Amino acid sequence: MRLISQFESLTGAGSRDCIVDNRNERIIFVINPGDMGLAIGKSGSSIKKASDVMGKRIEVVEYSADPAQFLRNCFLPAQVTGIDFDTNEEDLQVALVEVRDEDRGLAIGKAGKNIFKAKVLAQRQHDIADVQLAQNDMA
Question: Containing domain of residue 49, as a range?
Fold first, then answer.
């Protein structure tokens, strides 16, 4: 809670959740819809100021009540080409995300940090048990 209010006072952007990811030395904020401009600031000034004050890299994801749009936001700048929702054997919701082949590495991230971010945020914000990247079948 303290991090959220500190971020809001530094940037002016409303935040609904934050995750401290010590493994990747970052803090991820889920930003209220329409507040991304405030969160990032002109030429990245707001996010840089918050990063300097908090001592970790800051990442921001814009919230959406639509789970598919929220997942698209999680994977930015990778371009998501499709999302299917299914249930696994425990009857929990799973998202199968397709990205362009050239964005696959970007979607996964170094040491899997981007897919990790998507999984954690999807679970917390939309009760999605797992997020998987779809395998693109080459004909």
Answer: 2-62
